[in-house]
Amino acid sequence: MGQMSGLGLLQHLKNSNCTVPVIIITGKPSQSEASYLESGAAGFFRKPVDGDALVELIGSVCL
């Protein structure tokens, strides 16, 4: 993702008072789901993504 990590992006959005739900999708096995969820992510998926679960989560955060 370039110069900023996913956790860095979440922190930046939080500091900017952004209320847009963020869903993390990663292919890196070392990234911790708990870290992202504790930092405010609406959801976390590892690739390959279960499409049905992703659609369900998107539906729940967009209501």
TrEMBL record:
Gene3D superfamilies assigned: 3.40.50.2300
Domain spans labelled Response regulatory: 1-62
Signal peptide segment: none
GO biological process, one term: phosphorelay signal transduction system
Pfam families for the chain: Response_reg
Domain of life: Bacteria
Classification via InterPro entries: CheY-like_superfamily, Sig_transdc_resp-reg_receiver
Listed name of the protein: FixJ family two-component response regulator
Organism this protein belongs to: Tunturiibacter gelidiferens
